[in-house]
Design brief:
The chain is α+β, with helices and mostly antiparallel strands and 589 residues long. Helices cover 61% and strands 6% of the residues. Helix 10 packs across helix 12.
């Protein structure tokens, strides 16, 4: 970064007094604290089978997205935007985030509805783009600011966010170190405190907000870090340009069959184009000073390479769509191709038009970046709102192909309508079930009746139990979905776990014994049937190698020893000693 480039945006900075700086510090710390408390409240809202998050997904998902991303806008905008603009833009940003999350959940079918991963990624991208269109324009007091102002605001904010996240991570590493130091002398208060959500989340929010303030005060140092990062990235442009050029040169000899056979050709080529665009901008920076001639040459070549890359991506997407029709993923890929093509055309023109011109090298790139940013923002908002909902467009295309005869009924993907396209897909499937063509109506009717499969996710699984005695019932609430840290998580296969309900402590309420081959887990519950592990009973060390504790429960040969609340169990195979509290698997090895 040159002195000229750095000076450009500094003339737009607002003068600050000591009281102004103090107000900004307090505002940022308050924002960080409120964010942490809000996230803690949302975390508590997910607890229990009848949690608020399950009963109100249309409100919970927008609240999560706003609580995660809006504070970044609030932290970054303090002191940089005029107060009316700051308040108005904050309200608009919150409304846009809430709209994206609401639509993402509202379009889903089924009982369990949650915000999907793409809405978090594209929501954050849209917010970043929009914020760095607003801030420079407001500081310049014009609808459109100069390109150096956009460059300075966006790249400074990017570096600031990365450093702030690193600071928050380092803060927690220090807390873990302190907790271990206290633990070795027998004090566990800090480690226990760190496990409490009411402390962990607000503390993280405060640490992040403090880091934003510290990096904002020392903006000269941040510009220095940015300069180093951009310099390193710009020289990586030379490497990637050579690799992409070699790849394109090899295609006439190898053909495209190998690329199409990967099944992800379009995404690979789009990723390469996106990285090239970032690296070209790292070399160009704000355009005030040209880089070394070698980097100028690499940037011009890379700009021209974008066109064949986007052409390959568009071709691959057209081939897949013409064969199999549109899907939500292909529609999002098409949107990326459109935005990428805008950059390819603008960058190619910039590379060629300024070869023998007095204009700064590749100056038309600046207008392309601004137009591309606006196009990307509009595209994201269209895709994640009802305007151009990918599921709606994909369902219309797929059903149209079926009804027009381009897709045979026996090759149509009815499961896509049932499980992967939300409410609009389910509505289309129900309409197809009423079709006068039995080849369409019969499989559509069968698909409507299909139950949603349990996703193989570490975030939750429904256990399967075998009663210890034939005809016995499974204790209420024991077979609910559980997380991976629950002993019931390993009971997904038939016959893996045998269950016996029995009152072991004489309180008039049954506990549950869950037996695997080597361990019996003791589970207790509250009045709300919220089961928790209370301990484990291990196979006796002197037991026969082929002893299976599931058979012990099946035979029911258990007697209670006189002991504290949880007795040792005795069977014909020997006593099963009780170990208090959750214990690590393999403790009997």
């Amino acid at each position: 970064m040159t002195e000229t480039a750095d000076a450009a945006p500094s003339s737009l900075d607002m003068p600050e007094s000591a009281s102004d700086r103090r107000d900004i510090i307090l505002a940022r710390l308050a924002i960080g604290l409120v964010q942490g408390l809000a996230l803690y409240g949302l975390m508590r809202a997910t607890e229990g089978e009848a949690s608020w998050s399950r009963l109100n997904p249309d409100l919970f998902a927008p609240a999560v997205l706003v609580a995660l991303f809006l504070p970044a806008v609030l932290l970054s905008g303090v002191g940089k935007l005029r107060l009316p603009v700051y308040l108005a833009w904050s309200g608009v940003a919150a409304a846009l985030l809430a709209l994206l999350a609401w639509h993402d959940v509202a379009r889903q079918a089924g009982v369990t509805r949650e915000a999907t991963f793409p809405v978090f990624v594209f929501g954050a991208a849209a917010l970043f783009i929009a914020h760095h269109l607003v801030v420079p324009a407001d500081r310049a007091r014009h609808l459109i600011a100069s390109f150096p102002a956009y460059f300075d605001a966006a790249w400074m904010s990017g570096v600031q966010m990365v450093l702030s996240l690193a600071f928050a991570g380092a803060f927690w590493l220090l807390l873990f170190l302190g907790a271990e130091l206290f633990r070795v002398i027998g004090l566990t208060f800090l480690s226990e405190l760190m496990r409490q959500g009411w402390f962990a989340l607000p503390a993280t929010g405060l640490a992040f907000a403090a880091a934003v303030e510290l990096t904002d005060v020392r903006d000269g140092l941040i510009r220095g870090v940015r300069t180093v990062a951009l310099t390193l990235l710009s020289w990586l442009l030379l490497v990637l340009t050579v690799l992409v050029a070699a790849f394109l040169a090899a295609l006439p000899f190898t053909g495209l069959e190998g690329l199409w056979s990967t099944g992800r050709a379009t995404s690979l080529v789009l990723a390469a184009a996106a990285v090239l665009i970032v690296l070209i901008n790292a070399a160009y920076q704000d355009g005030q000073t040209a880089p070394p001639r070698l980097l100028q040459l690499a940037a011009r070549i890379a700009a021209l390479l974008l066109t064949p890359l986007l052409a390959i991506a568009a071709w691959g997407l057209w081939l897949r769509t013409s064969q199999y029709g549109l899907t939500p993923d292909r529609i999002i890929a098409l949107a990326c191709v459109i935005v990428g093509t805008t950059h390819a055309m603008g960058y190619g023109y910039a590379a060629v038009s300024t070869l023998r011109s007095e204009t700064r090298w590749m100056q038309p790139l600046e207008r392309t970046n601004l137009a591309g940013a606006v196009l990307a923002l509009i595209t994201i908002l269209a895709l994640f709102t009802p305007v151009a909902d990918p599921a709606r467009l994909a369902v219309a295309d797929q059903v149209g192909r079926l009804e027009s005869g381009r897709t045979a009924p026996d090759r149509f993907d009815y499961a896509f309508l049932r499980f992967d396209s939300g409410r609009v897909g389910m509505a289309a499937l129900q309409r197809l079930a009423r079709s006068s063509d039995p080849r369409i109506a019969e499989p559509a009717t069968a698909a409507v009746a299909l139950a949603a499969p349990v996703p193989p996710s570490p975030a939750g699984a429904t256990p399967r139990f075998e009663p210890a005695t034939a005809g016995a019932s499974i204790p209420d609430g024991l077979a609910q979905p559980v997380l991976a840290d629950d002993p019931r998580y390993g009971c997904q296969d038939a016959g893996a776990c045998v269950v016996l309900g029995r009152d072991l402590d004489g309180d008039g309420r049954d506990e549950a014994l869950i037996a695997t081959a080597d361990i019996i887990y003791l589970m207790t519950r509250s009045d709300a049937a919220d089961w928790r592990q209370a301990g484990m009973l291990f196979k006796p060390c002197n037991a026969a190698p082929d002893l299976d504790l599931r058979d012990t429960l099946r035979r029911g040969e258990l007697a209670l020893d006189t002991a504290p609340r949880w007795p040792t169990l005795r069977s014909a195979d020997g006593s099963l000693p009780f170990t208090p509290g959750p214990c690590p698997t393999g403790a009997n090895d």
